User: Which sequence fits this backbone?
């Protein structure tokens, strides 16, 4: 009913709008006044966490994209190796696991069969499993050693939005907590990131306030067949997520590429007026990546692409090459997906509407897939 949708036409729009609160709720009670993390609900002892020598993340769909982003954060803040794998591929290749592996299973529903089978396999090998989940008491957290709930509230639309952002927050918390417990790299940087994280909900809110031009742009692209997405570093999984949203909702051919791979194949796809969305890393921080992506934008535009550029406020280097410019607030590099994903959700939702598709219940898809 309209009341359930809180005045929005679709649950997806409501859930996109709820993201600032969802992100804040996931942080709630997990940062103590001194700026340290208290993840009491992670019932794997600090001693056990210190003995971990590798992290393995398993998930499907949108949750898998959260896992890909988590890898950058976990490896950077803990200096531990982290693998990410599609849950459906995991157990069939006989993965190398033991008592010192920490397996993180990410799932909104907590019922995805592929993810459940992956975590069962991990526990059989003696690994500890931490679930990152949005649904209290669901099967995946019940079968895990520990759980960090995402507190996004119920997500009804099949295409995941607020669950994804809160999965990212939970992954950052786990990465920072591992860094804190293990004493690696624990210092000014991690403290500063925790401060940035606690402000991020306002930044997501700011992005939401500026989405009208993104909707207008989406409507002009309703008759296109293909949209490509490019990103680099954590922007690469963001590109994959942008493409997934478009497949799920607009039933368009959409693909995400690592911008550095462009020259190894995908650039052959560029043709006159092909829309290409580019997620640009911050010009501060890893500025080498920024400069390389600016030249990618230049290259594809020279070959006729219609460039849709998502870049940080104040990044002037992209301006000459952007046919459409979508601004996002400046954030630390690793946190950028929390703001960069939002325009892509809005974009896909509006394109779906413009193409006359059912937004909340896309064809052929289910909210949770309980078969392998
Ligand atoms: C289904 C949904 C996707 C979701 C995936 C994983 O395919 O349609 O939106 O990302 O399952 O779901 P989970 O509940 O495990 O996060």
Assistant:
């Amino acid at each position: 009913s309209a009341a359930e949708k809180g005045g929005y036409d679709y649950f997806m729009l409501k859930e996109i709008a709820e993201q600032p609160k969802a992100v804040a709720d996931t942080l709630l009670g997990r940062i103590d006044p001194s700026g340290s993390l208290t993840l009491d609900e992670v019932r794997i002892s600090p001693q056990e966490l210190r003995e971990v020598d590798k992290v393995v993340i398993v998930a499907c769909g949108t949750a898998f994209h959260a896992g890909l982003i988590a890898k950058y954060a976990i490896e950077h803040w803990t200096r531990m190796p982290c693998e990410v794998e599609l849950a459906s591929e995991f157990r069939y290749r006989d993965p190398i696991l033991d008592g010192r592996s920490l397996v993180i299973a990410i799932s909104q529903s907590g019922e995805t069969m592929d993810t459940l089978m992956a975590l069962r396999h991990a526990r059989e090998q003696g690994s500890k499993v931490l679930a990152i989940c949005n649904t209290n008491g669901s099967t995946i957290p019940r079968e895990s050693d520990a759980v960090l709930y995402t507190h996004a509230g119920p997500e009804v639309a099949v295409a995941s939005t607020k669950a994804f952002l809160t999965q990212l927050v939970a992954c950052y918390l786990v990465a920072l907590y591992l860094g804190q417990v293990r004493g690696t790299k624990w210092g000014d940087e991690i403290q500063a990131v925790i401060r940035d994280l606690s402000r991020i909900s306002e930044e997501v809110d700011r992005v939401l306030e500026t989405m009208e031009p993104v909707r207008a742009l989406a409507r002009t692209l309703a008759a296109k067949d293909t949209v490509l997405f490019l990103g680099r570093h954590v922007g690469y999984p963001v590109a994959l997520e942008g493409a997934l949203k478009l497949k799920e909702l607009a039933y368009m051919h959409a693909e995400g590429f690592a911008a550095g791979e462009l020259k190894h194949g995908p650039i052959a796809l560029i043709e006159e007026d092909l829309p290409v969305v580019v997620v640009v890393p911050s010009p501060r921080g890893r500025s080498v990546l920024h400069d390389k992506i600016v030249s990618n934008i230049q290259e594809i535009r020279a070959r006729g692409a219609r460039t849709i550029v998502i870049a940080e406020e104040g990044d002037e280097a992209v301006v000459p090459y952007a046919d459409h410019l979508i601004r996002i607030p400046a954030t630390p590099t690793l946190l950028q997906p929390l703001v960069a994903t939002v325009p892509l959700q809005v974009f896909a939702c509006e394109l779906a509407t413009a193409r006359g598709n059912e937004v909340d219940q896309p064809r052929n898809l289910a909210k949770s897939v309980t078969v392998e």
About this structure: The longest strand covers residues 101-107. The pocket of 6-O-phosphono-alpha-D-glucopyranose is lined by residues 60-63, 107-109, 112, 115, 158-160, 365-369 (CB under 6 Å). The mean pLDDT is 94. The beta strands are 54-59, 82-86, 101-107, 128-133, 146-149, 226-231, 253-258, 275-279, 306-312, 324-328.
